[in-house]
Amino acid sequence: MSTTDQRFGLARTITLPGPLRLDGGGLLSPVDIAYETYGTLNAEGSNAVLVCHALTGDQHVASDHPITGKPGWWARMVGPGKPVDPERHFIVCANVLGSCMGSSGPASLNPATGAPWAMAFPVITIRDMVRAQAMLLDHLGVGVLHAVVGGSMGGMQALSWPATFPERVRAAVVIASTARHTAQNIAFHEVGRQAVMADPKWRGGDYYGGGQGVNGQNGGDPPAAGLAVARMAAHITYLSEAGLTEKFGRRLQARPDRPDGAKSFGFDADFQIESYLRHQGIAFVDRFDANSYLYITRAMDYFDLAEEHGGHLANAFRASKARFCLVSFDTDWLYPTPESRAIVHALNAAGAPVSFVELSSPFGHDAFLLESPEMNRVVDGFLRVGA
Amino acid sequence: MSTTDQRFGLARTITLPGPLRLDGGGLLSPVDIAYETYGTLNAEGSNAVLVCHALTGDQHVASDHPITGKPGWWARMVGPGKPVDPERHFIVCANVLGSCMGSSGPASLNPATGAPWAMAFPVITIRDMVRAQAMLLDHLGVGVLHAVVGGSMGGMQALSWPATFPERVRAAVVIASTARHTAQNIAFHEVGRQAVMADPKWRGGDYYGGGQGVNGQNGGDPPAAGLAVARMAAHITYLSEAGLTEKFGRRLQARPDRPDGAKSFGFDADFQIESYLRHQGIAFVDRFDANSYLYITRAMDYFDLAEEHGGHLANAFRASKARFCLVSFDTDWLYPTPESRAIVHALNAAGAPVSFVELSSPFGHDAFLLESPEMNRVVDGFLRVGA
After folding, report:
1. Which residues of chain A have a CB within 8 Å of the CB of B265?
2. Predicted pLDDT at B239
3. Are residues B230 and B154 part of one domain?
4. Between these two residues, B262 and A161, which has the higher pLDDT value?
5. Separation CA A35–CA B333 (nearest Å)
6. pLDDT value of residue A219
7. Who among B183, B197, B236 is closest to A249 (CB)?
8. B69 CB-near residues (< 8 Å, 6+ apart)
9. Among A residues 164-183, those touching chain B with beta carbons less than 8 Å apart
10. Is a pLDDT exceeding 60 seen at residue A212?
């Protein structure tokens, strides 16, 4: 492994030993988990950092994506000289259960039928994802995590880790996240699910054709139009109103016949924001499985850490031995700062050490994925304590 | 006419004399306008109030809807003893051009073909709607309006009126509205349009079957699934996050087999917010034409009153002789208070008399349609000046 090589990660897939017991009551087997590691576990086994990805993310956190060739989705946070550093940390990032980048999900083969699970795949929860990650860490010989780090849905996992495995986490970094989905969060996801399910090509989930739907390379005829609409709606929630205004405003799209842009008085993408959104929708269907989108949004909507602990969020952390670092962004209206504050209050009530900062950014929820020297400084400082 | 009768309005349709010249460059003919009036024009012709409806509204502002039997959509504002009062005012409310409640729109018959216009209907603007209203007022013998009143898209018309016909408006009431659509506003509408157009039943707009699509009674096979998704997405923007939390929170939907509600670990509408949104989507397709939805959202996205006046909003009002009353709601994130403030600043710059108030409400954008004694007091006081 060379840390100067952009593709310094080791990407692998394991099949977990034994079935996974799910919050929904069933057992899932087999469970494949695709993951990537960076760096080396030290002799004490004390330098492992688990990085958790968001709704549509993958295991390639810091190395080029093997298919698209794009840089890792969080190379700003994870990599040589970054807060999560393969020179110092043994870094693990796994594709979440239910996804479509190599871990078991609705596009995987159901051993009982030899065909993709589709909607016969069991509904999973954030905690189920975390349990699968714990089994992966067992396999890798990681007992206790130096830290678990995540943003957005990754932050939900980072919160769920110390609540589910209080003995196995020394620190949790939770960025631009929440301890439960609000009615508005659920509403946006429901619009997306309905858009997918309204597409006649969805066919009750049975659109895979011959093969598995991993990375969209399924050879079937997926509900691309519905998934694109779902992605467009979701994408609006990732950006701030001010950021959209700054980036696009009411500027018109240039065209060959109208270099300066002009209203078409038709239904073309006249405005740059329309063109951008359409592109976001279309690009997404090439890389993501529609059924996985249903399952993972469902897991996020079901997430309510307080409800899992008798209705009191503080109870989730009473057994925890972890330190916590919370970061929110002032223009994030998907998981706005009060959601982080509520977690901080619960951690205080549970007597858990916690630091919290709200950062300023024009970029809304997406800010956690973008260049943010302050975020990096906060996370770096936090992770170096007790390292 | 009896003002104690809930159905005291007179609903009629006229065909405007001569073609309507459109902002898009073409001429539209014939132009039917369906409207309802309440009260009587006084001898001086000085008591006319034009009420303008929002995106999916209709002319039945204060009387029961002839098909659904539901009360007028703004009976809280318009009616005996209300701020707009048929005892004192001659009230006119017209279905906007491009809609589907009797005024000409894509579901109307194209005289050139004898079939519905569908997407051959010209793209229209808010100003085109206003020009059609002016021709209706000519027909009704109304020269100068005592006031034009509207909320949301109705407020855009109320702003456009004094800008387009400065001699014909003495007062304008603009509630929960804006002088231009932002990138985020356009983005949400574009999601809705893409949802409609992604539905294979949309068929490029030619889904009407035999008859016209007025009120959805078209006998065709409309893109109901896509339109329902569009409505769901839009509906979220009409409500505040706090209002959604108060009304629904994470409460689960009761079912025959689960009276207290429980997670299904499936894709049923487990949460009340899901069930509510699905209902909103389904109910909407029964009453609204999908193509009209495309055309009216397009008109709103094109709306930029400053752009129509050399890039300076104040210029729009320099010839105006009207007084203005602006009302915003603190939890309205579709057209938030700063949008109203921008209008107030432009009116100040133009030397136009303006009063402005931000009201507090938990209900977001929808607040303007709901019970609001303060809003009524403000509008009532404003309309009585100079009456």
Report:
1. 23-25, 122-123
2. 97
3. no
4. A161
5. 40
6. 63
7. B183
8. none
9. 180-183
10. no
Same domain, B308 and B169: yes
Which residues constitute the domain of residue B119? 10-181+302-384
Lowest mean pLDDT among A340-349, A378-387, B126-135: A378-387
Cβ burial of A143 (10 Å; 0-12, 13-18, 19+) is exposed
Taking a C-beta distance cutoff of 8 angstroms, is the pair B93, B110 a contact? no
Q: Does the distance separating the beta carbons of B277 and A190 come in below 8 Å?
A: yes
B199 is in an annotated binding site: no
| Mean pLDDT for the stretch of residues A303-308 | 96
The label of the residue with tokens 């009360």 reads B71
Residue A5 pLDDT: 38
pLDDT at A6 over 70: no
Complex ipTM over 0.85: yes
- Is B85 among the annotated ligand-binding positions? no
Number of domain units in chain A = 2
**A–B: how many Cβ contacts below 8 A?**
155
Based on the fold, state whether residues B308 and B253 are members of the same structural domain.
no
> In this structure, is residue A5 part of a structural domain?
no
Domain boundary among A249, A276, A295: A295
A185 has pLDDT over 80: yes
Q: How many CA atoms lie within 13 A of B158 on its CB side?
A: 32
3-state helix, strand, coil in chain A (%, to 5): 40, 15, 45
Q: Which amino acid is at B328?
A: S
CB contact under 8 A, B302 and A263: yes
Nearest CA among A32, A53, A70 for reference residue A283: A70
Backbone angles phi, psi at B27, to 5 degrees: -115, 140
- Same domain, yes or no: B286 and B196: yes
Domain assignment present for A2: no
CB atoms under 10 Å from CB of B355, counted, come to 16
Burial of B113 (0-12, 13-18, 19+ CB in 10 A): exposed
Strand A20-21 versus strand A27-28 pairing type:
antiparallel
For residue B193, give the 3-state DSSP assignment: helix
Q: Does a structural domain hold residue A28?
A: yes
**What residue type is B63 in one-letter code?**
S
Please return the burial class of A222, using the count of CB atoms within 10 Å of its CB with bins 0-12, 13-18 and 19+.
buried
Catalytic residue, chosen from A60, A99, A365, A372, is A365
Q: Quick one: pLDDT at residue B210?
A: 63
**CA-to-CA distance for B105 and A186, rounded, in angstroms?**
35
Label residue A259 by pLDDT band (50, 70, 90): confident
Which residue numbers in chain B have pLDDT < 70?
1-8, 210-219, 387
Asked if residue A124 and residue A44 are part of one domain, the reply reads yes
Q: Which of residues 331-360 of B touch A (CB under 8 A)?
A: 333
Q: Over pLDDT 70: what percentage of chain A?
A: 95
CATH code for the domain of B225: 1.10.1740.110
Residue B52 in domain = yes
Nearest CB partner across the interface for A250, out of B183, B194, B195:
B183
Are A50 and A195 found together in one domain?
no
Chain A CB within 8 Å of residue B127 CB:
no
Q: For residue B305, which amino acid is it?
A: L
Residue B175, helix vs strand vs coil? strand
Is the same domain home to A54 and A94?
A: yes
Choose one of A264, A295, A326: the last residue of a domain. A295
The answer to whether residues B169 and B249 belong to one domain is no
How far apart are alpha carbons A297 and A105 in whole angstroms? Answer: 13
The pLDDT value recorded for residue A254 is: 87
Going by pLDDT thresholds of 50, 70 and 90, the confidence category of residue A109 is: very high
Asked if A229 lies within 8 A of B229 by C-beta distance, the reply is: yes
**For B272, phi and psi rounded to 5 degrees?**
-60, -35
Angle between helices A183-198 and A290-302 (to 10 degrees): 160
Probe site for chain A from B181, B193, B265 (most A CB atoms < 10 A)? B265
User: Could you confirm whether B146 is annotated as catalytic?
Assistant: no
pLDDT of residue A214 exceeding 60: no
